[in-house]
Amino acid sequence: MAIRDIYETAFDENVQTDSSANQCPECGGRVTTNAVETVCEDCGLVVDEQRIDHGPEWRAYDDDERERTGAPLTAARHDRGLSTEIGHGTDANGNTLSERKRRQVARMRREQSRGRFQSKAERNLAHGLGEVRRIVSALELSEAIRDQACQLFRSAQNDNLLPGRSIEAMATASVYGACRCNGLSRTLDDVTDPARVEQSRVTNAYKTLNTELGLPAQPVTPSAFVPRLASELDVSDRIRQRARRLAEGSESTGVTTGVCPSGFAAACLYKAGHEQGQLLTQTDVAEVANVSPVTVRTHREALDELAV
């Protein structure tokens, strides 16, 4: 067989080129291309980086079997999602297993569940992360909030904040802390409703997280609650925009300091609805905001005095 240049018809990313077409656009110097980036040897300019990997996404150990890559690592699982799960009654192709094979799989599943956790701390972590995922799913929050809440629960366990406190309360407080750090309009009542613990315990757990971990929690303003309350009340865009202007104008004067943000937002919607001709009752607005009608009426009087 004739000997020829192996790179005659193909491109190898580790080969250094000296052609004029691959000169540096800044100084015209020599450009070197490797598997990661294209760099000028004279001035150090990075011409290109993060080249596309044209190889297969599967790994082949022999000619008959190809193993594809699994799911990415996730903070929502105690083992980062690396452990396997044994199914029930069927194989990989969906075929029903025999009675003898089902008994064998059941024994394997039992032994796997016994060796799944290496310590009591790991078992508590799995239980807490399960509660975080359940609450996030009930509140219909994003995966980013879920991952941040799970990481916050991990930090609480690593800093030894769980002894003496309920795991469910700390998991709920982690979800509430993630919402506060991202400026989401979720009150403590909203987060506690799907939880399996009393609100007083969640409040104490959140205070502990905020004090010990130094959370960058942002104060929730009434204007952040206006879109969600307006959507639940099914009001027009004109009322929603007017209520948002009322809330933002009140925030600039400092009247909203120390008040319930959801109750003040409900009062803004109530006032905006009456200005636009849609008569919203105080009871309906207060029920959506999870406050009393007296709170809505008090904030409405404060809005009338401001004349925003």
From TrEMBL:
Database matches in Gene3D superfamilies: 1.10.472.170, Cyclin-like
Species this protein is from: Natrinema pellirubrum (strain DSM 15624 / CIP 106293 / JCM 10476 / NCIMB 786 / 157)
Free-text function comment from the UniProt entry: Stabilizes TBP binding to an archaeal box-A promoter. Also responsible for recruiting RNA polymerase II to the pre-initiation complex (DNA-TBP-TFIIB).
Keyword list, A-Z: Initiation factor, Metal-binding, Plasmid, Protein biosynthesis, Repeat, Transcription, Transcription regulation, Zinc, Zinc-finger
Ligand binding (Zn(2+)): 24, 27, 40, 43
Ranges for region Disordered: 63-103
GO CC annotations on file: transcription preinitiation complex
Domain Transcription factor TFIIB cyclin-like: 123-210, 219-298
InterPro entries, alphabetized: Cyclin-like_sf, TFIIB, TFIIB_arc, TFIIB_cyclin, Znf_TFIIB
Molecular function in Gene Ontology: DNA-binding transcription factor activity; TBP-class protein binding; translation initiation factor activity; zinc ion binding
Protein name: Transcription initiation factor IIB
Sequence repeat start and end residues: 130-213, 224-305
Domain of life: Archaea
Gene Ontology biological process terms in this record: transcription preinitiation complex assembly
